[in-house]
């Protein structure tokens, strides 16, 4: 994954002007209590006499420990996993942990991305040493405080379960009793970290802090924010991509009971009301004339023709990888693939609440990117960044959709216009039709098998809008987007002659980052084609892959384990098996499914998934993520698609944008390997293997190769 | 004025008869545990009980439920005595983002009133609630745990 520099990010402000509106903040919800106090800035002395050695930890006199969560909790478990890491090094019982979502602040930027962001399956991976050090540092200061009190050398003391222990003199002091003294101790330059065998919580905590709040309705999401005097607003966006509002008539909208105002904001027309429903009714009553812009004639058919032509011709191809020879003798195979765009469809529709006053701006939002939310809120309100407070709520799903700050920036614009706090709430139709989508793609791939059936050459050309550009990040001078090329530029297979090319079609459809961006499509192409090659070579699909992964022991172990778990080669009665391998965020993953056909529709009965996550901080959460990503990927594989006509999205809601429900959800068996020295990414990779595994199983059933996603178009 | 009895409390509200119950609950009464997901009875995030029936509150006009007993997630159980499904949801660690789970719990607790031991097939036929985090397998396990079931078909 490309490392984004803060300077790049700041440039994004000027790049976007006011077109992508954003706004976010921090604060949040906590362990046991759904309305924990919000912190307004980075650490300072605490009012309760707590000991706050750094931005991450406050040890309280009552033995409770507040741990700040600087990443967004969207289901992936960071609100449990990240505090677990701090708590383990601090050496406290997990029951003593209370969490608080961190504000937008420099102390909390991701060490890899250089901004405060939750994405790329990076949170635990990139914060691992930072969080351990924060916990260990606090622990060392508590030990120093005890040593000073007792007049002994700190090296003679140990800690356990929130107490400092002087075994020699048979005495203990709880952390809570040491907070005042610890605050006077110097911050250690390089605190000693635990060894892996000394962990007491990492790998052992299997519950989630937020589960109790999520079964009784008390967890607060963005949509649940209530601010005194707030209104609700719904925004009418021009239906066609790139269109603008020419004129509008709000007279009927204003007559709707409950509607209090109608205001023009940069991206549309906001209907402001006493409740969400009135705002929706008012929006439906607007009469609008648009300037439709240059995209008004675009359709799925016209775009597909253009994409396929680019993939076939290679026009405008940018070199990504060129290894070995481009002309290799042997038996040639080639194929052309096409994938439709897909919407994120987070369960919680986009929303944000903003309050713009003369004092500054507050934003409450389910955001994945506090830094951008804050920056764009400041721009929208016309105030300095330090006047913007971002409160991060629980997120009702993220999947990359909330890496964009359109919804929070809009909320700031509306609040500024009506001079009152407001919650901007999207309908599901808004969400489906105004997303930044998993991009449409066309891939051309060809390969050569030698006379012994070995894969000796592959060339892969990807035509896909730039995902980096959609995120607001500048492309490198070559124009190569490594995210749109994921699973292609970083293929794990040792193919001696390998070329990869990128073509950016600049189609005009907003291109977004969706769970395992790039890879969630490209790996379908790679892994179904690999299956095809194995079959052509007369080799077992597992053995064919293993032969190309000899230098990747983690990948090899994952494949062998999933084969064992699924009894590869011996499917359950009435089913056939399909296999796929993937690699995302430094985690190898493999999936085997058991499938039967109901007419032209694949029925996935069981899915076996194995991943090597390095260290599973919370094994249950790792399993949840692999299960969830499997089902999320299965929606994309089977039925989810966005089609375009007249420059606008044709789907509306869950009756025509189809997603998985419980009736089609497979039983999922997950196994987790830990053959790496630190945690690797877990949140997205399950999406990259399920689709090709299903398609490969279908081939085993009916001999048909899928060249398109979703598969609802493949077997008709 | 319309009279709504939600979780045992009666509210006299000045709202139109055609306002969907969801918005009366969330934006007027102020109980936010019931979620908005689609507005067209597709996803089930908004499921509440009217009497013993699980209904999609986003398409239920308040005029049709005036005077009836409405139960939301906030009153499915109590802190002292959670519903068996809530306990099972915690034991099985069902929720991820959690946004749909109020609706899942209300829909399935509604099903249990007429079918105390639903099989996985019963869930497949009766429960159409969407979970984008894909917690379906854990939902099945949690229902089995709560109802002493666990049949595969």
Description:
The complex is a heterodimer of chains A (716) and B (153). Chain A is of the alpha+beta class. In chain A, 28% of the residues lie in helices and 23% in strands. Chain A is globular. The termini of chain B are far apart. The model of chain B has no long low-confidence stretch (mean pLDDT 96). A 5-stranded mixed beta sheet of chain B has the order 2-1-5-3-4, with helices on both faces. Classes of the chains: A alpha+beta (716), B alpha+beta (153). The interface between A and B is large, with 66 and 60 residues.
Task: Describe the protein's topology.
The complex is a heterodimer of chains A (716) and B (153).
Chain A: H1 6-16, E1 51-54, E2 57-59, E3 65-69, H2 78-90, E4 97-101, H3 123-150, E5 158-160, E6 163-166, E7 171-174, H4 175-182, H5 211-214, E8 231-236, E9 244-249, H6 251-255, E10 259-265, E11 268-273, H7 276-284, E12 287-291, H8 300-313, E13 318-323, E14 331-339, E15 351-357, E16 360-365, H9 370-381, E17 388-392, H10 406-418, E18 422-425, H11 428-433, E19 441-449, E20 455-464, H12 467-470, E21 497-503, H13 519-536, H14 541-546, H15 553-565, E22 576-584, E23 587-598, E24 601-612, H16 619-638, E25 644-645, E26 648-649, E27 667-673, H17 686-702, E28 708-709
Chain B: E1 2-6, E2 9-13, H1 21-29, E3 47-50, E4 53-56, E5 69-71, H2 84-91, H3 101-112, H4 120-126, H5 136-147
Parallel strand pairs in B: 1-5
Antiparallel strand pairs in B: 1-2, 3-4, 3-5
Helix pairs in contact in B: 2-5
